[in-house]
Write a structure and sequence with these properties.
- With about 210 residues, the chain is α/β, with parallel strands linked by helices.
- The protein has one domain: 3-Layer(aba) Sandwich (Rossmann fold).
- About 50% of the residues lie in helices and about 10% in strands.
- It has 10 helices and 5 strands.
- The relative contact order is 0.17.
């Protein structure tokens, strides 16, 4: 652990969480902040650089369009990717769906470019939805095949995988969905801390 470890968080609003666009060192108030704190606490001798490039509203296609600047050029040692819920959400609020095939192809290209042009370890977190409002039940038919696509890709490309949809289903047996998220998608503090704990446990195997 002699070198500085550069860690990149990538994704949509769950990762973005309102981070500052002026201060590029700001991790925001979401799970990246708590994950970084856990890694610093567990590995006090390691020097770290943490970077959050999550952007609210992004889908896999948006991530792909900015991947050179917001991943390859940064040359991370560890990258985490949490993307996919907006590929489902836009089908319901904007009549702008992303097919499973397009979703999987976009995600595959992200992973292939990362493998080809960086030395980063890849930590994938699957998209999730919690059923705390009735409309979210309708999302399952669209989201579940995308989760399966993410799992297929993880077997091929990832160094570690966090099955958030399943883990949050189990967590909802401890506390109801509103304990973890505000709307079934966006974590409140308890949800962000839980994602960070899952993240830190998975990342520990890659350091």
């Amino acid at each position: 652990m002699g070198k500085i470890m550069r860690v990149l968080f990538q994704g949509d609003s769950i990762t973005d969480a309102g981070r500052s666009r002026e201060d590029l060192t700001d991790l925001g108030p979401g799970y990246p902040r708590y994950a970084a704190a856990l890694l610093r606490e567990r590995y006090p001798q390691q020097e770290w650089t943490f970077i959050n490039r999550g952007i609210s509203g992004n889908r896999t296609g948006d991530l792909l369009a900015r991947w050179q600047e917001d991943c390859i050029d940064l040359q991370p040692d560890l990258i985490s990717i949490l993307i996919g819920i907006n590929d489902t959400w836009r089908a319901f609020d904007s009549n702008n769906p992303t097919s499973v095939e397009r979703f999987e192809e976009n995600y595959r290209r992200l992973l292939e470019e990362t493998r080809a042009h960086t030395h980063a370890k890849i930590l994938m977190l699957e998209p999730f939805v919690l059923h705390n409002t009735p409309d979210k039940n309708a999302w399952r038919a669209d989201l579940d095949p995308k989760i399966q696509a993410v799992r297929r890709l993880a077997w091929q490309y990832a160094d570690a995988y966090v099955p958030l949809d399943g883990l949050f289903a189990a967590a909802c047996m401890e506390q109801g969905p509103l304990y973890w998220t505000a709307d079934g998608v966006h974590p409140v503090e308890a949800g962000a801390r839980r994602i960070a704990a899952y993240y830190a446990d998975a990342a520990a195997r890659l350091l």
